């Protein structure tokens, strides 16, 4: 759909990206270094996850890529062009489904098109939205209001809303963190299937090590104060990923490696 | 519930014990309301009968009932009460509509613009701290003895809750939803119309309900000060003639009027905020 000459090359590139915050309500200059020299590249169709403790700057990195907050140093480029703000090629979703409660599920899914291209374009995209809802198992709920959906269903509707504009890069900020364990695992399986079927390039921010491994081709482990990437771990597990992999040896070796990076190897890992 | 396990009789006894309610809890609310009302009327009747208090100061329940029947009869047969009620209703409705228009506009300026919040908000708060009824003579001087001065008084008294609630509602927008709109590159107008205003509707309706009641107060104050042909004027005349029963009956009509406008706004709210459970 777009002119992609750099096929095979990096589609998204972060080059020594930094973010400093001024801490509110303090007399003196109190500056927090939220992200330090963050550099990585993503190829088309690659799924990456950023994992780390809360406050390690992983959400900050994601919001900078989404153009919601500006970096204080470094550069983010999409297909070689510098990103300076929100962008139609990038779709984002948050921990909360943030569906507008006064709109039906269908109207919520069409919202990005309505805002970017107007109401007529949104109406013209109804068929595409219906297909997305079918894929997410929400076809019967197109005319329901968000209050009638369960947490998992609402988050699936949010996925549809993110996908409706066919963005090249998907950014997910702890997308399933508010769901219970069972729903969460189910959502991971479904989301992996959706991404695979569209060869989506995605970055998932999570504090769940299992989720990070399950979804990603590469896991970037972040450590706090200042937030930086301490290691990139490539996940060599076949796709599609299946729930039984989670209990497999290979998977658990990855879990142990990441756990040790996050908590230090001294404090006995306790997952076998 | 669906399994066929036999229930131990002792469990049933324990359950009944857990579910036992007091007599008051078991009595339906309407009955309690009626009983309490009857008790108050009885005390009122006894007090008037045995204290020797003059009918001119406080009439008994029976006298008030007669005045009420007279007033309602006059209202429904198109007498002077009907005319006065109509005049006051027109003043209340226009006063309320004006207050809503001013309140919504001002609230949107304050809630959606930084300049409005910083420069205008302090004045609105300052005006609210003034005893607004004290302005009533001025409104008569400015807008005359006709219905205009009453409409302006009602609007002046009741624009404030609409303003404040609109501004607060616009400012209360969920921060995640704001972030979503920002990521979609929504412009300011789209954010206001598609996100902030719908989000603020429950707040706005809370303000409109207050304004509905306050505009009746504004109209009555306007009529006390500026005369005219409305119910407020009838109350003033009846009180000056020491016909206290009449006063009570007419005040009841005013209350019903406030209740009607309030009920109408509540119906609108049910329609516009039906997404909120």
Automatic annotation (TrEMBL), chain A:
The answer on whether this UniProt entry bears the keyword ATP-binding reads yes
By its UniProt entry, which SUPFAM superfamilies does this protein fall under?
Answer: P-loop containing nucleoside triphosphate hydrolases
- Quote one Gene Ontology molecular function term: ATP binding
State the UniProt keywords alphabetically: ATP-binding, Nucleotide-binding, Transport
InterPro entries annotated for this entry?
A: AAA+_ATPase, ABC_transporter-like_ATP-bd, ABC_transporter-like_CS, ABC_transporter_ATP-bind, P-loop_NTPase
At the top level, the lineage of the source is Bacteria
> Residue ranges of the ABC transporter domain?
12-249
Q: Does the keyword Amino-acid biosynthesis apply?
A: no
Assigned protein family: Belongs to the ABC transporter superfamily.
The protein, known as: ABC transporter ATP-binding protein
Q: Origin organism of this chain?
A: Nitratireductor aquimarinus
From TrEMBL, chain B:
Q: PROSITE patterns, alphabetically?
A: ABC_TM1
Q: Does the keyword S-adenosyl-L-methionine apply?
A: no
Domain ABC transmembrane type-1: start-end pairs: 85-265
Q: Does the keyword Membrane apply?
A: yes
- Spans traversing the lipid bilayer: 30-53, 86-111, 123-145, 151-172, 203-227, 247-268
* Keyword annotations: Cell membrane, Membrane, Transmembrane, Transmembrane helix, Transport
Q: How does it sit in the membrane?
A: Multi-pass membrane protein
Q: Which Pfam families match?
A: BPD_transp_1
- Spell out the subcellular localization from the entry: Cell membrane
Which SUPFAM superfamilies does the entry link to? MetI-like
Gene3D superfamilies annotated for this entry? Answer: MetI-like
Q: Which family does it belong to?
A: Belongs to the binding-protein-dependent transport system permease family.
Protein's recorded name:
ABC transporter permease
